Amino acid sequence: MLFDTHTHLDAPQFDEDREEVIARAVEQGVTRMINIGFNRETIPSTMKLAESYDFIYAAVGWHPQDAITMQEGDLDWIAELCKHDKVVAIGEIGLDYYWDTSPKEVQHDVFRKQIGLARSLGMPISIHNRDAHEDVVRILREEKANEVGGVMHSFSGSWEIAKMCLDLGFHLSFGGPITFKNAKQPKEVLTKTPMDRLLIETDSPYLTPHPYRGKRNESAHVRLVAEMAAELKGVTFEEIAEITTRNAMERFGISRI
Fold first, then answer.
1. Burial degree of 237 (CB within 10 A; 0-12, 13-18, 19+)
2. pTM greater than 0.85
3. d(CA 238, CA 243)
4. SUPFAM superfamilies this protein is in (predicted)?
């Protein structure tokens, strides 16, 4: 039983074979997935997926790369969608200093507003953080994100940053990079992460794990992530599958029924 906590099954890369991709994930033991709607285009398609499959859930939010496109009323739209029983988080939200698509001050403002919304609704948040570790942690602290917690999606920081996120009540989620031979830091951080704070994901169609690196990723490959996590933790695949699924169900308030 596997839980892919972060995927983009509505991406155009899946337009030709989306149903087959979802079926392959199920065949590999993936029993739950969270699809991420992160802007004006992907939020509706994410909701459609969540409503079409009982094992697919939704997170909705405004991605930092798209922060500059957020308009008056979009926050209210997200708040309204959070009433839907298949929406389990606000995300992915955060900061991205790699892609120069939205000014930092705009990213900060949109990030803070969405944390505030999450706190008002009691919703966990899914954090996107690229090359912005210190500012992400600072804003999470200043906006009291510890009151709702959430997930550091595709965590790529150091163990020092990881400890700060854990202290704020966040889970750390790992994907394909932990399978890369030269990925010393993600492997080290995962090894040190407490079992009850560990999650797995694919971020498909991106961050494809070894041995498929360079090809399109898909949710079925979360099994490869789980296998590597089990190896790094020195436990069985079955234990990692059970623990990470339980962690995700509890973190996102999903019933086992």
1. middle
2. yes
3. 9
4. Metallo-dependent hydrolases (SSF51556)
Q: How far apart, in whole angstroms, are the C-alpha atoms of residue 95 and residue 137?
A: 10
| 170-174, strands of its sheet edge to edge | 2-7, 30-37, 56-60, 87-96, 125-130, 150-152, 170-174, 198-200
Q: pLDDT tens digit string along 58-86? A: 999 999 999 999 999 999 999 999 999 99
The first and second tokens of residue 118, run together, are 């999450």
Contact 251, 124 (CB under 8 A): yes
Least Cα distance to 14 among 219, 225, 221 occurs for: 219
With the C-alpha atoms ordered 155, 140, 193, 246, is the resulting torsion angle positive or negative?
negative
For 194-229, the pLDDT digits (tens) are 999 999 999 999 999 999 999 999 999 999 999 999
Residues 6+ apart with CB under 8 A from 246: none
32: pLDDT strictly greater than 60:
yes
Q: Rounded to whole angstroms, how far apart are CA atoms 184 and 99? A: 24
DSSP class per residue in 97-122: SSSTTS-HHHHHHHHHHHHHHHHHHT
